[in-house]
Write a structure and sequence with these properties.
The protein is mainly beta. It contains two helices and 26 strands. It has helices at about 1-20, 20-25; strands at about 35, 50, 55-60, 65-70, 75, 105-110, 115-120, 135, 145-150, 155-160, 165-170, 185-190, 195-200, 205-210, 215-220, 235-240, 245-250, 255-260, 265-270, 275-280, 285-290, 295-300, 305-310, 320-325, 330-335, 340-345. A hairpin with a 5-residue loop joins strand 24 (about 320-325) and strand 25. It is globular. It starts with a helix and ends in a 12-residue tail after the last strand. Residues about 1-25 have low confidence and may be disordered.
Length: about 350
């Protein structure tokens, strides 16, 4: 009998030792999931007496070349509160509320967060508007042109990778519309493998517009409403390897899925505020939920697999997570529109790779 008890005890001990690390940990709230926030990243770039403004966009071209879209700079008050930590949101005001000076709107930082380039030659494009909205590079473009959505002025820009040339402007500056040559507050862009461009045209309009690789209008779909295929505030858009198109139908609190012709396929309801969609290498669908300050992971059928994140202006917290990007080393970047900062998250040592965003 004693031998049997010892054997059972030995098996139990081995089982505990071999159990996943999360079963052995105590406490915690899983605020940053399988990641840890990189402290003091990036380095400040605003001129003296100012602070960087709202940051709605981020795109990691490489681990050492990260684009940040910033809505200019904000003048700091003479007296800073005790909670000020280098981001406007820590002053208890959304970074989108004060009027910014449109300076340093498109920037590039390296992996350590040091400023590498600032495309100040294009700052004037954002004068009179709210600044850039999202920034992306097509995965199918060998020239790696940089695209920037200027929603308040109803246009989308295509730049050369070095920022020296403005290759193309889609839409007409300061002229809203709903035809083949105009947008009304476009919010985001995505591509299909043949180079076709998809636009979530999105606050003034309620549609997805499709253009060919040369910028010629192809088609559009969607109308304002909450029925299947209708849209209200489409804010994010992404595609998977099967050419399915995922739209963050934000005001309807759902994700809608279409084929490449605009045919309605499915919807995933019950989201608070889907701001951005990222399709990982394993084809999982990751969503930035602004209101809940969370990162949500879904499989291809819409099943919620994991979630992490919390509200706050402390390192690792979010006020309004607006765009996400992941680099080839697995680092995750989150642009926080209301908080007025971009954060870098690196995988924790020993993190379960299945819980990381694959790249």
């Amino acid at each position: 009998m004693r031998t049997a008890i010892l054997t059972i005890a030995s098996v139990f001990a081995i089982g505990v030792a071999a159990s996943p690390s999360w079963l052995q940990e105590k406490g915690g709230e899983n605020e940053t999931g399988p990641y840890e926030v990189v402290a003091k990243w990036p380095a400040p770039w605003a001129q003296k007496g100012y602070i960087w403004g709202s940051q709605p966009g981020v795109f990691a071209e490489t681990p050492n070349r990260i684009f940040i879209a910033a809505r200019g700079e904000l003048k700091l008050p003479e007296t800073l509160g005790r909670g000020f930590n280098g981001a406007w949101g820590s002053l208890n005001q959304r970074a989108t509320e004060p009027k910014p000076e449109m300076r340093n709107c498109i920037l590039i930082v390296d992996g350590a967060g040091a400023l590498v380039e600032s495309w100040t030659q294009w700052d004037t494009l954002f004068e009179g508007g709210g600044g850039p909205h999202k920034i992306r590079i097509s995965p199918y473009d060998p020239q790696k042109h940089v695209w920037v959505v200027n929603d308040a002025r109803h246009v989308i820009y295509e730049f050369t990778n070095d920022g020296k040339q403005l290759v193309r402007t889609l839409g007409e500056t300061d002229v809203p519309g709903v035809d083949d040559k105009h947008f009304n507050r476009p919010q985001d862009i995505a591509w299909l493998p043949d180079g076709s461009l998809l636009v979530a045209d999105g606050l003034g309009n309620s549609r997805v517009a499709k253009f060919d690789k040369n910028g010629a209008f192809v088609t559009a779909w969607g109308s304002r409403g909450n029925g299947p295929g209708q849209l209200s505030g489409p804010h994010g858009i992404a595609t998977d390897r099967n050419r399915r198109i995922y739209v963050a139908d934000r005001t309807n609190h759902r994700i809608q899925i279409f084929d490449e012709t605009g045919k309605y396929l499915d919807e995933w309801p019950g989201l608070r505020q889907p701001n951005d969609i990222l399709i990982s290498a394993d084809q999982h669908v990751w969503v930035a939920d602004g209101t809940n300050a969370k990162v949500l992971e879904y499989d291809q059928r819409g099943k919620l697999l994991s979630t992490w994140g919390t509200y706050g202006m402390f390192p690792g917290g979010f006020w309004e997570l607006h765009q996400m990007s992941v680099d080839s080393e697995g680092n995750l970047y989150g642009a926080d529109s209301f908080g007025g900062r971009t954060q870098k998250f690196r995988p924790r040592a020993g993190a379960d790779k299945a819980k990381l965003i694959s790249y």
